[in-house]
Amino acid sequence: MKNIGIEFKWAIIFTIMSLLWMVLEKLCGLHDRNIDYHMYLTNLFAIPAIWTYVLALQDKKKNFYEGKMDYKQGLVSGIILTLIITLISPFTQWVITYVISPEFFPNVIKRSVELGYYESTEIAEANLNYKNYALQGMIGALTMGIITTAIVMIFVRTKDGELVQEVE
């Protein structure tokens, strides 16, 4: 457990940050009066999500690998972090759906039918619900987590020049 303690810590931080983001969205009216902007503005979540991955991988490098982490070590760490986040994501979505913003799905269903995204309320309800969002959240967490890790590790890894300087 000690080997993945940092990943577990950052998965919890990521989850809390995700929940706070949803509270912010709700407070800004993106789940009701400003729902038309939700599908655009919710994508800004990528900024704190990527930043959290950067901080997590820097933490692993500094506090587990003593400042020297190669690409593969970071990739493994990021994948472990991603797997933990992915496993927690259905719970996160449940809290969002039933605690933070229970009015979101009724509102988005109504508005998507009004705008013609779906032909009927029944079709919208079949697509816009906790079960689908939980599944999409898991797939998205897994996919984006691995891609984010792969890119972030290009910058966080210890480069060959850094190793030479430290040896001298």
Automatic annotation (TrEMBL):
Transmembrane intervals: 7-24, 39-57, 78-100, 133-156
Keyword terms of this UniProt record: Membrane, Transmembrane, Transmembrane helix
One protein family per Pfam: DUF4199
Superkingdom: Bacteria
InterPro entries recorded: DUF4199
Keyword Transmembrane helix: yes
Name this protein carries in UniProt: DUF4199 domain-containing protein
Species of provenance: Sphingobacterium hungaricum
